[in-house]
Amino acid sequence: MLRSALEHRDALDDAAFAVDLARGVEFVEALVAVMQRNEARRPLVEALAGSAAQGAAPGHPAHEHMRRRYARLVARMHEALQELERDDRLAAGVDPKAAARVIVALMDGLQVQWLYSLDASGPRPLDMAAHLGTYLRLVTE
Asked: Who's near 67: CB < 8 A, 6+ residues apart?
């Protein structure tokens, strides 16, 4: 059941991301759109956040799925950043491999913080897309 939910969430993200790119949306903006869509999918974000932490244990049912997911996401991000670098659209001094890992970690971390902000007494929840966009503008030109 858990594996099925995680695979469903990944399939939703992958499909929407592919549609954005096919429509000509820039890679960076497509990533921001993923975060915007996730704001309407709290249960899926909760499932991913819990599985990311608990799945780190080798015997956990989500372990292999999460390990493969992170490898796939970091590789995809690395390729996209290398393409931006070839097009002179990556900020000077940015290592595409290191930035790929940081972006994946940032997206996961923002989702966890967003979940906590939903129950906070503050005026509004954390804006995941805005924070991700801020970082992406620092590393791209």
From this structure: 55
**Which H or E run includes 99?**
helix 96-118
In terms of Cα–Cα distance, which of 64, 38, 62 is closest to 51?
62
pLDDT tens column, 107-141: 999 999 999 999 867 778 999 999 999 999 999 98
- Cα separation, 16 vs 44, whole angstroms: 15
Compute the distance between CA of residue 94 and CA of residue 109 in angstroms, rounded to an integer. Answer: 21
Query: What pTM was computed for the model?
Result: 0.91
Task: Identify the three-state secondary structure at position 41.
Answer: coil
What one-character DSSP code corresponds to residue 90? B
